[in-house]
Specification:
Largest sheet: 5 strands, parallel
Pfam families: 2-Hacid_dh
GO molecular function, one term: NAD binding
Number of domains: 2
GO cellular component, one term: cytosol
CATH superfamily of the largest domain: NAD(P)-binding Rossmann-like Domain
Organism: Atrichornis clamosus
Structural class: alpha/beta
InterPro entries: D-isomer_2-hydroxyacid_DH, D-isomer_2_OHA_DH_cat_dom
Order of helices and strands: EHEHHEHEHEHHEE
Number of helices: 7
CATH architecture of the largest domain: 3-Layer(aba) Sandwich
CATH topology of the largest domain: Rossmann fold
Shape: elongated
Number of strands: 7
Radius of gyration: 25 Å
Strand order of the largest sheet: 2-1-3-4-5
CATH class of the largest domain: Alpha Beta
């Protein structure tokens, strides 16, 4: 019994500055055969008919008319992250290509960070840490002084 061939997905690269993260690439390899943009451009005629999907990671590869026109069997473009502002959805749909994204992926971490920033701001934690911990410190290039005391009852550490 022959093993079923995986569909091909176009990505910018694996690793490096702008490529798909290594652990994410490992997940993609479970369901897709990865084709990097370098491989695609090096053998465009053979690769163009094989590619059925494109995975956009950190707004790359750039999805334009030229790329969409060169991929006749393209069915879907997937993008990581929340927004799709970096994509021209009308142009993509004019090529008959579907779009997918992950709208709720970072909702909880974003809420956590937002709450942490509000609490830190309300409690003035950054300024307190500058005032309470000995040593030279600067907050927005303004020197701050610290309390030189052995009595920690006048300081609040944590919440």
């Amino acid at each position: 019994m022959a093993e079923e061939e995986l569909p091909d997905v176009l990505i910018l690269d694996v690793g490096g500055t702008h490529g798909v993260l290594e652990n994410l690439a490992a997940l993609l390899k479970k369901c897709f055969s990865l084709i990097t943009m370098k491989e695609f451009l090096g053998n465009k005629e053979e690769m163009r008919k094989k590619i059925q999907s494109v995975f956009v990671f950190e707004c790359r590869p750039n999805i334009g008319r030229e790329l969409l026109g060169s991929l006749p069997n393209l069915k879907v473009i997937g993008t990581s992250g929340v927004g799709v502002d970096h994509l021209d959805l009308k142009m993509i749909s004019s090529f008959g290509v579907k779009m997918i994204n992950t709208p709720h992926t970072v909702a909880d971490p974003t809420a956590d960070i937002g709450m942490a920033l509000m609490l830190a701001s309300a409690r003035r934690l950054v300024e307190d840490s500058v005032l309470n911990f000995p040593g030279p410190s600067y907050f927005f290039d303004i020197p701050h002084f610290y309390y030189d005391t052995d009595d920690l009852s006048k300081s609040i550490f944590g919440m």
